[in-house]
Design goal:
Mean pLDDT: 85
Number of helices: 5
CATH class of the largest domain: Mainly Beta
Number of strands: 8
Low-confidence stretches: none
Number of domains: 2
Shape: elongated
CATH architecture of the largest domain: Roll
Helix content: 40-55%
Strand order of the largest sheet: 1-2-3-4
CATH topology of the largest domain: PH-domain like
Distance between the termini: 23 Å
Order of helices and strands: EHHHHEEEEEEHE
Length: about 160
């Protein structure tokens, strides 16, 4: 049953910056993919038991090389995707999500949304396990609009909506 306090629609005017995109990508890779990191920690512990030199190499790769590769991949992806960089109008209603920009128009019903995650700076609305729409919190006009958006996500997605608090 829909929450009567959920607004009919929320409109946001968004122009993403590279830093928004980069933060979301790091969150997606490091935190959402928890099972992958559990496996990496397991391998790390196994390496410690077997040989300490392997641990040093692993730590350099894990702490320096991997983040650098992510950054460079994000930068290349950002530069090659003009639609992500364009100013866009997002409309979230009780039935669907619409995104419109100068060269891009997208509409999908909530049933097609895989999941939504809130983290410190943004909401990530996933249309599949690896594809998401980025909604930085800084584009909400005020706290009540942000709370209304959370309510809309909860109403539209139920258990597929995941919140920080």
């Amino acid at each position: 049953m829909a929450d009567p306090n959920t607004p009919n629609s929320i409109e946001l005017s968004i122009t993403l910056q590279f830093q928004d995109y980069l933060k979301a990508l790091f969150w997606h890779i490091y935190w959402k993919q928890k099972t992958r990191w559990f496996f990496i920690v397991f391998i790390l512990l196994l390496a410690i038991l077997i040989h300490s030199q392997g641990v040093a190499i692993f730590l350099v790769i894990f702490l320096v090389v991997y983040p650098a590769v992510i950054y460079l991949s994000a930068e290349k992806s950002w530069q090659s995707n003009n639609s992500v960089q364009q100013h866009a109008q997002y409309t979230f209603s009780k039935t669907d999500v619409k995104i419109e920009s100068e060269t891009f128009h997208h509409r999908t019903e909530w049933i097609n949304i895989y999941a939504a995650y809130e983290h410190a700076n943004s909401f990530l609305i996933y249309s599949s396990r690896r594809t998401f729409f980025l909604i930085p919190k800084k584009f909400f006009s005020n706290q009540p609009q942000l709370e209304a958006f959370r309510s809309l996500l909860k109403s539209a997605l139920g258990a597929k909506a995941h919140f920080d608090n």
